[in-house]
Amino acid sequence: MTRIKKSRKLGSLGPRKSDSRPEKVGKTPRKTTRKGLTSGARNAQLEAKKAEITENRSNQDPRVGSKTPISLVAPDPKQNNQPEQIKQPQAKVSKQKKVAEPIEAWQQELNELENDQQLQSLLDRYDNQEQLTAQELTELNKKMARHTWLMEKLGLDDMDLDEDEALLDQWENSQLKDEDF
To answer: Of 33, 123, 139, 168, which residue is least crowded by CB atoms under 10 Å?
Structure first.
C-alpha cells in the first residue's frame, strides 16, 4: 500500500468545520453620535431670532405709536416769543453745626475711671514694681491715656496741689545725703 501523508486540507476524510463567526441576525448597525454642532447651526440660530422678531412685530398693531401726551390746543404765539430764562447753578451753602462738647459725660467718665477698682489695683501693682502681663499693661495704658485726655479736655491738672502738699512732695522727692545734716 501506498503511504498517504497527513495534510491540513480538509477533504473527504475529516469532518467539515462550521463557521466560527456567527451571522449577524437581528442586529442593526448603531447610529454614530456626532460631536459638535451641525453644519450651518450658526446661521440657523440667527434666522430663528429674526423669525421671532418679525413674528412679534406682526402681532403688534402698527397704528399704535408713542405714548407721550400731545396737547390738542394750539400753543399761543406770545409765549413762544419770550426767551426762556436759563437757570444758573448756585452753590449750596451748608450750615455748620457747632458740636456741643459733652462735658457732663466726660466728667462722669472721669469719675468712673478714678473709682475703678481694677485700675486702682493695677496702679498699685505697677507702683510696687510687680510684673504685669501684656494684657494688663495694655489695659493700664489705655485707661491712663483716656484719663489724661479727659483731664486735658476738662481743664483739670494734677499739678494744682495745695502749697502744703507741694512742699511735702518736694521734701519727699528730694535727694538728701547724710552729709547735708
So the answer is: 33
In whole angstroms, how large is the CA radius of gyration of the chain? 54
Residue 162: band (very low, low, confident or very high) from pLDDT cuts 50, 70, 90: low
Q: Which three cell numbers stand for residue 168?
A: 511735702
Taken in order 144, 146, 152, 156, the sign of the CA dihedral is negative
d(CA 2, CA 153): 140
Residues 6+ apart with CB under 8 A from 154: 103, 106, 107, 110
Percent of the chain at pLDDT above 90? 9
Cell readout for 82 is 419770550
Q: pTM for the complete prediction? A: 0.35
Domain boundaries, the chain: 103-173
The amino acid that residue 82 corresponds to is Q
Distance, CA of 22 to CA of 119 (rounded, Å): 100
CA-wise closest residue to 106 among 142, 72, 148: 148
**Percent with pLDDT over 70 in the chain:** 70
